[in-house]
Amino acid sequence: MERYKTNLMQAFKRAAAKPEGRMGSDFLEAVLRERPDLQGQRAYFPAQGECGHVVFIGDEVFKGPQDWMLFDYKDQPVGDFDKEHETLSQLQGCGLPVPRVTCVGRQAYFYGMTRMPGVTLTEAFKTMTDKEKRDAAFDIADFMIGMAKALPPQDGMYACQEDLHGNNVLIDPKTKRLAAVIDFGVVSYASREDLARCVSWSPLEFYVRAAYKSKKAALPDHPAVVQQKQDLPKPLDVLEGFTRMSPLNNMKLGECR
Ligand SMILES: Nc1ncnc2c1ncn2[C@@H]1O[C@H](COP(=O)(O)OP(=O)(O)O)[C@@H](O)[C@H]1O
Ligand SMILES: [Mg+2]
């Protein structure tokens, strides 16, 4: 929680944008102030998410929190935006089909990334044959394993893109194979057995679970480290308990010195 608060403070300092209009025109202005090279390119707002502005400009996609997030939900959301570009940067060079971060705003809170090809899985799914679904599911399972290998495990758990639903997975409309995975705002950690939970909202859920089951041996099964918080008794409390049960005589006390 502390980390989120710190990020929020940074976000306030960096938020050069004026109070934003509904269509994000001020967000666009803030991006253009820092990236004048984009002037004259076409800008397009795809369907907006609940938490952020997303705008396509030329070959890039820019993302940042909406105004209400900065002001009303002070405890957490900005941290997700910070995490997303950090995660994407960590995944660069791992051979996974994810966007490359192109810039991070200095005055306003946003980052840019490459625009990935493909149509959403939600859209592609409507016309996919059973074989195409199975092939795409294997691609997604490979992606999950690749990501789990690429990021350092935590407490024996593997990183996963927790939000692998149909709009965050892009499919090549011709081959119907995986083109890209986007939206790394929600990265969490799961055991090898539990990693496939990230496809719970995918139209390919059962196909991916089956594919993952046949491939998961590629990941070593770390025993998850369960952090147990114990309040250890203080040494004097132990001594006091001991003397209550078996009073110490001088000789024994002497031995202790
Ligand atoms: N790098 C990208 N390449 C192509 N399309 C993208 C990219 N990033 C976002 N989009 C499009 O914008 C939509 C919203 O972006 P996303 O990162 O999923 O934000 P949200 O957190 O609002 O879901 C996506 O469903 C996708 O259509
Ligand atoms: Mg999304």
Structural account:
39% of the residues lie in helices and 15% in strands. The protein has 257 residues and is α+β, with helices and mostly antiparallel strands. It folds into 2 domains: 2-114, Phosphorylase Kinase, domain 1 (2-Layer Sandwich), CATH 3.30.200; 119-218, Alpha-Beta Complex (Aminoglycoside 3'-phosphotransferase, Chain: A, domain 2). Helix 1 (2-14) crosses helix 4 and helix 6 crosses helix 7. The protein is flat, with a radius of gyration of 25 Å. The protein starts with a helix and ends with a helix. 30% of the residues are buried. Bound molecules: adenosine-5'-diphosphate and magnesium ion (MG). Residues 46, 49, 51-52, 54, 61, 63, 99, 113, 115-116, 120, 167-168, 182-183, 185 line the site of adenosine-5'-diphosphate.
Helix-strand category: alpha+beta
In DSSP terms, counting alpha (H) and pi (I) runs of 4 or more, how many helices?
9
Describe the largest sheet: 5 strands, antiparallel
Count of extended strands: 10
| Bound molecule types | adenosine-5'-diphosphate, magnesium ion
**What proportion of the residues form beta strands (DSSP E)?**
15-25%
Strand order in space, largest sheet = 1-2-3-5-4
